[in-house]
């Protein structure tokens, strides 16, 4: 991948990662409810999980999955069910205790593995990876493995700062969500937004 190609893909990846989607709703809710430090595993899970998925899809798995109606149907309804369950967990999360510091939050946030695995049932992730593979892979360039690893690596570099914006936005909201009532309202809104993303699956 040339410098120009890497820069073009970096811009694509940054924009794709920073635009609203299920993962960013998850990051914002995690930041607001768990704080910055406890939200970092979720951040790294989203970013590295998406980078790994980008490499795998670009290497060929994506075409196998997208060309199989049975697999796509399973992913669609399984993903929709998981998103609704996660939306319910966020919407009904208990307000945190008013303690000082970033570590004074209660409840267990989504961790690294949960956030990384979430990418495989995230409709936006599939759309981004499939679009990137069809647009940026070149038949006259390096082998498929080298290209797919390059795409995954560049995506991680681009998604880390863009995804951090959403986690930081959630952390900043802690200054506003100081009472239980406002925290409950925020969790309900985040849960509703995440549940609304199910439309990607069933439309």
User: Which regions have little confidence, pLDDT < 50, spanning 5+ residues?
Assistant: 98-106
Classify the beta-strand content into a percent band.
under 5%
Main beta sheet: strand number and arrangement? Answer: none
Oligomer: single chain
For the secondary structure, the number of strands is: 0
Overall mean pLDDT: 80
**How large is the radius of gyration?**
18 Å
How far apart lie the N and C ends?
36 Å
The helix content, as a percent range, equals over 70%
The shape, in one word, is globular
Q: Give the helix/strand class.
A: mainly alpha
The helix-strand sequence is HHHHHHHHH
Helix count? 9
Write the layout of secondary structure elements.
Layout lengths: L2 H16 L3 H13 L1 H31 L2 H23 L20 H7 L4 H14 L7 H30 L6 H17 L2 H4 L1
